[in-house]
Write a structure and sequence with these properties.
The protein is of the alpha+beta class. The protein has two domains: about 170 residues, 3-Layer(aba) Sandwich (D-Maltodextrin-Binding Protein, domain 2); about 200 residues, Periplasmic binding protein-like II (D-Maltodextrin-Binding Protein, domain 2, 3-Layer(aba) Sandwich). About 50% of the residues lie in helices and about 10% in strands. Helix 2 links the parallel strand 1 and strand 2.
């Protein structure tokens, strides 16, 4: 509107002009306050559901994300590993209490994908496969179901490593070369260690079985099933794994203690267990809460026999029933394709980056004090580059459960290895039919 002074109107006085300025200023201030208040209430809330430890990656990323999206409030809901995945399974089945972004571990990717409750990120508007060459190739395969659904974006990986107590090995006269040369050499080293120090080499013989069933795989193959869904658990790969683990038990080198138990962590603290085979992330757990007082005594080495395998891995999925899918996708991309965010997670909780470019950061070459100054991240990076792109199947958890049950019968009841694996195959095939 044009403000034209009408003919005959009185010219404004100085006092009138001063009051007008004050009134206008007050209006401006009130408007600004209202706008600010409105902005605060209008913030978009993005709900991210995660499990413990992975939630620390999200916490580390929130300040970085707020820099580019100050209008977004991240509501992080974190539960223990089992409780979280049970809650997500229920939420996807019922459509209730769904988050916008769902953190999931590798063992649940195929199950959630084939269940139909999460978005296929390979399709528009996501087109996530445009980023696949930025990631370690095996992580892309892990995120893809047998039906071709790209169910989740990979966030971190777990290149396998052998963590061992160098002080105990030195005391026993055992070298790293003896530990890594071959499985027979590994078992012999364990016998020497036990005789000289009284310590067990590994917590449980199943550690050998678990890594050996992942050895010798080629791109496109699965651990328990081939590309057509055929059950593979009676193959020479499984026979060798069972037999070698059985030999380890007979040699007395395992403490017969399951992973993640109180006895397991106490064994590392007290030095009664001298090594463990897991993902690179175990270094962070040992340092932060399992055995912090053993700083400097641990080293990282390759898996015996030159096996290159992945232990675990974390992913982010978007439920089909999510309320803020566009923003959820933006956040998922931020967590998985942003180099700064990936490195922040690496520093915070030793979550090895899935983004190849992030592993070129100088941080990778820094010595790790807990590992006696070893530059172990370079070793983990080399392993990650060699891990085959193994297929996942929604029935992998079922097959794993059946195989583990039969393995226990071999160790505890003396059941014949081939008979145990034949029974495992029948049980898995029966579960498939039903």
């Amino acid at each position: 509107m044009n403000r034209v002074k009408k003919a005959g109107s009185k010219a404004p006085t100085a006092h009138h002009e001063e009051n007008t300025v004050k009134f206008t200023s007050r209006l401006t201030l009130v408007a600004a306050l209202l706008a600010t208040a409105g902005f605060a209430h209008a913030q978009t809330v993005l709900t991210v559901a995660s499990f413990k430890d992975l939630d620390r990656s999200v916490q580390a990323a929130i300040p970085l994300y707020k820099k580019v999206h100050p209008e977004v409030e991240i509501k992080l809901v974190a539960l223990g590993y089992g409780d979280h995945h049970n809650a997500m399974t229920t939420a996807l089945a019922t459509g209730a209490n769904l988050p916008d972004v769902m953190g999931i571990e590798i063992g649940f990717v195929a199950k959630f994908a084939e269940g139909g409750g999460v978005e296929d990120l390979s399709k528009p508007p996501y087109n996530a496969l445009q980023y696949k060459d930025k990631f370690f190739k095996f992580a892309v395969a892990q995120a893809t179901s047998r039906g071709g659904i790209f169910a989740a974006m990979p966030a971190d990986i777990g290149p396998g490593a052998l963590f061992y107590r160098k002080d105990l090995m030195d005391k026993a006269g055992v070298t790293e070369a003896q530990l890594t040369k071959s499985w027979p050499s590994f078992i012999d080293a364990g016998k020497t260690l036990k005789a000289k120090t009284g310590s067990f080499l590994i917590p449980h013989a199943s550690a050998i079985k678990d890594i050996m069933i992942r050895s010798g795989l080629k791109d496109g193959e699965g651990i328990y099933f081939d590309g057509k869904g055929k059950v593979l658990v009676d193959s020479p790969r499984f026979v060798n794994a069972f037999e070698t683990a059985k030999q380890a038990r007979a040699a007395g080198i395992d403490a017969k203690i399951g992973a993640w138990s109180n006895e397991w962590s106490e064994g590392f603290k007290r030095g009664t267990i001298a090594s463990e085979m897991m993902g690179a992330w175990l270094a962070g757990h040992l340092k932060n809460w399992i055995a912090p007082d053993t700083k400097g005594n641990w080293r990282s080495a390759g898996i015996p026999g030159g096996v290159n395998a992945s232990y675990g891995g974390s992913f982010y999925a978007i439920p089909k029933g999510a309320k803020n899918k566009e923003l959820a996708w933006d956040f998922v991309k931020f967590m998985t394709t942003n180099k700064e965010v990936q490195i922040a997670a690496f520093r915070e909780l030793d979550a090895f980056p899935v983004l190849v470019d992030a592993t070129n950061d100088a941080f990778v070459s820094q010595p790790i004090e807990f590992l006696g100054g070893q530059k172990a991240r370079e070793q983990w990076k080399a392993t990650a580059a060699k891990i085959p792109a193994t297929e996942v199947d929604k029935l992998d958890p079922v097959a794993q459960e059946v195989v583990n049950a039969e393995f226990d019968k071999v160790l505890e009841q003396g059941k014949d290895v081939k008979a145990a694996l034949a029974d495992a195959k029948k049980a898995i095939e029966r579960r498939i039919r039903h």
